Amino acid sequence: MRYVEEFRDPIAAKAVLSAIETLVEEIGATAENPVHIMEICGGHTHAIFRYGLDRLTPKGIEFIHGPGCPVCVLPMSRIDECVEIAERPEVIFCTFGDAMRVPGTQKSLLQAKADGADIRMVYSPLDALEIARRNPEREVVFFGLGFETTTPSTALSIQQAARESLSNFSVFCNHITVPPPIKALLDDPHMVLDGFVGPGHVSMVIGTHPYDFIAETYGKPIVVAGFEPLDLLQSVLMVLRQIRDRRAEVENQYARVVPEHGNPVSLAAIADVYEPRPTFEWRGLGEIDASGLRIRGKYAAFDAEEKFAVGYGAGPRIVAEPEGCACGQVMTGRIKPTGCPQYGTGCTPEMPLGALMVSSEGACAAYYQYGATDDTLEAAE
Fold first, then answer.
1. Are 331 and 362 in contact (CB under 8 A)?
2. Which domain holds residue 244?
3. How far apart are CA 323 and CA 140, in angstroms?
4. How far apart are CA 320 and CA 381, in angstroms?
5. Fewer CB under 10 Å: which end of the chain, C or N?
6. Which residues contact 234 (CB under 8 A, 6 or more apart)?
């Protein structure tokens, strides 16, 4: 058993930072010509700013904040469809707390709740199952949301509902997968990416091999990382070593948690319940082939899209972003959150315009919470 203090040891951190600085000099990276490293996971983005790693690492490293926040990449049209389902009088709509305040074109789920919809925050799809058991006269819909990390729990809940013949339970499935958007970013000619810090929680489920294409096809290094300061610093060091040595490999810094081939029980549940959608819209990235999951026909009775005739089979889906909102540009690394004209003025955690300011893993929320502007950093110091 390792204790978390081991991964927050300041003496060890200084040694890793010294090695990083040496490698940056060897590579010849500078503030004007930095190494661009994308941390895919929003949890990593928050850890970087929480622990000040953006300030501790040399100027020759630039962190690019990737689309690894499932709430943030959900298009507004899907929030509109959530509200449409939730406002039906027969429905109890269950959702994780992060999704409550994400704005749709007309309102958020929180605003719909204030208007009278029966919307309940839950911590697990199993909570929604229990609500369905206790309310057999109502339709209970769970907002299935997240990457491969949360996908198994929703799958297991659907399997349990099927075993119990719980016909008043269904899932509005918005589960998405990590590898396809990475490919989309690498195919974007405007993106400059030299390496990746890979998501730890997702990789607990899928393992490390789904990232092989990043190294083999695109020649970019990726290191799956944990979430403590030393995890992230060591992962950056491993990426830099690969760049210096002109290698491109998938490495696993988080081996204490992430198995090479993933979690077989979780993967089996995912394969049983879901199949890839032909395409799915990502906020800021557009339509990405085979990047979303839908519920298989054998479990159609538990598919809210089928039950309520909403979603991908019900007509046009793409909705324009609010005027001045730059969530898409931030999520694709084209600008930093502070480069958005609405940041901190028209868009704040209290009154969010875009999802990146709402979610606990959103890049804008991380910048706002930890003061990632020149003025606020000086004030904090």
1. no
2. 26-369
3. 35
4. 40
5. N
6. 16, 225, 253
Residue 348: CB atoms within 10 Å: 15
> Do the Cβ atoms of 361 and 45 come closer than 8 Å?
yes
- For 364, the token pair is 């804008």
Report d(CA 115, CA 188) in Å as an integer.
42
Instruction: Classify residue 270: in a domain, yes or no.
Output: yes
Element (H, E) at 327: helix 327-331
Q: Are 65 and 45 in contact (CB under 8 A)?
A: yes
Q: Which residues contact 218 (CB under 8 A, 6 or more apart)?
A: 186, 248
Strand 250-252 to 222-224 pairing: parallel
DSSP assignment letter at 137: T
- pTM over cut 0.70: yes
Q: Are 296 and 324 in contact (CB under 8 A)?
A: no
CB neighbour list of residue 226: distance below 8 Å, 6 or more residues apart: 7, 200, 232, 235, 253, 254, 256, 257
Token pair 């198995």 is found at 259
With cut-offs at 50, 70 and 90, classify the pLDDT of residue 332. Answer: confident
Token digits of residue 15: 């040694």
Q: Is 345 buried (19+), middle (13-18) or exposed (0-12) by CB count in 10 A?
A: exposed
Which is it for strands 222-224 and 195-198: parallel, antiparallel or unpaired? parallel
Structural domains of the chain, count? 1
In a domain, 242, yes or no: yes
| 35 falls within a domain | yes
Residue 182 in tokens: 């990475």
In the predicted model, is pLDDT for residue 140 greater than 90? yes
Average pLDDT, the chain: 91
Contact criterion met (CB below 8 Å) for 199 and 44: yes
Mean pLDDT of 314-341: 77
Residues 6+ apart with CB under 8 A from 217: none
How would DSSP label each residue in 239-281? HHHHHHTT---EEETTTTT--TT--HHHHHHHHHHEEE-SEEE
User: pLDDT per residue over 166-189, tens digit each?
Assistant: 999 999 999 999 999 999 999 998
Looking up residue 274, the CATH number of its domain turns out to be 3.40.50.11740
Q: Is residue 381 part of a domain?
A: no
Sign of the Cα torsion 109, 110, 111, 116 reads positive
